Amino acid sequence: MTVALLVCPAAGLGAAGRVAGTVASRLRTACGDVQLLVASDAEGTNRLAHKAVRDGVEVLAVLGGDGAAHAGVQACAGTKTALAVIPAGTGNDFARALDLSLDGVVEALRTGRRRSIDLGRVQRGAWFGTVLCAGFDSAVNERVNRMRWPRGPRRYDLAIMLELAQLQSKPLTVRTPAGEVELEATLIAVGNTPFYGGGVPICPDADPGDGLLDVTIAGRASRTELMRILPKLRTGRHVDHPVVTTLRASSIAIAGNDWIGYADGERQRELPLTVECVPKALKVVA
């Protein structure tokens, strides 16, 4: 079996770099030789991932967070190469959704287990394994990307508070094969898997094996209402709130305003966006 281990040393505030040697040793116990690839930045991660797949590795193992997993998804989707994700980031939502861990990956490599999962895909854009969002959440992402302080999860907490102070709803049109929904909204999330933001089940029932994408829309809400909804996000109970609408569809067209879409935490582009579910697009070592 040919296996490449792609390491993103900066992931998890340096955690990936610190455990890379141990991880490589564990993988070698299951499959023999492991080619070690070390990326210095996001561009390097993408480049090395695609090169490994072009070179014909049977398994691309990625050690890092959701950004690294996203790069692995782009390289492996629609190919014969299986993706293994070993979580070492701050969010780890892709690994969380598929119950991936170092022990699990080692065992799956030893026994040859694979699982085929669905992926979301942005029309003329990226694949995504977790969630595509736009609105309040993407505004938080935009702000976080401009901030240089503080580091880690506190940056997101501060960005959330700053964006809440500027909260406003916008017209949103959502089209699916079943029909069209028009409303004033504060955010929309399209989930292939349930989690984003480090374990928030924004689309709690999303299943990467059902051929469908789950949609969660928060309608027009005041700051006070949104503050009441936010604590329920961690339990998935937000979907029971009257201002929240949920849908399920194989394809979704989102339009009506100038929100920026983010998929797997990576910036896409301004609305309108069309996304579709591509069944069994990715083989995962799990």
TrEMBL record:
Keywords in alphabetical order, please.
ATP-binding, Kinase, Lipid biosynthesis, Lipid metabolism, Magnesium, Metal-binding, Nucleotide-binding, Phospholipid biosynthesis, Phospholipid metabolism, Transferase
Q: What is its EC number?
A: 2.7.1.-
Enzyme superclass (EC): transferase
The cofactor named in the record is: Mg(2+)
DAGKc domain span? 1-125
Q: Which SUPFAM superfamilies match?
A: NAD kinase/diacylglycerol kinase-like
Any one Gene Ontology molecular-function term assigned to this protein's record: kinase activity
| UniProt key word Nuclease | no
Per the record, the domain of life is Bacteria
Q: Is this entry keyworded Lipid biosynthesis?
A: yes
Quote the InterPro entries the UniProt record gives: ATP-NAD_kinase_N, Diacylglycerol/lipid_kinase, Diacylglycerol_kinase_cat_dom, Lipid_Phosphate_FormReg, NAD/diacylglycerol_kinase_sf, YegS/DAGK_C
Q: Which NCBIfam families match?
A: YegS/Rv2252/BmrU family lipid kinase
For this chain, the family text in UniProt reads: Belongs to the diacylglycerol/lipid kinase family.
Give the protein name, as stated in the record.
Diacylglycerol/lipid kinase family protein
**What is the protein's species of origin?**
Kutzneria chonburiensis
Instruction: Kindly list the organism's lineage.
Output: Bacteria, Bacillati, Actinomycetota, Actinomycetes, Pseudonocardiales
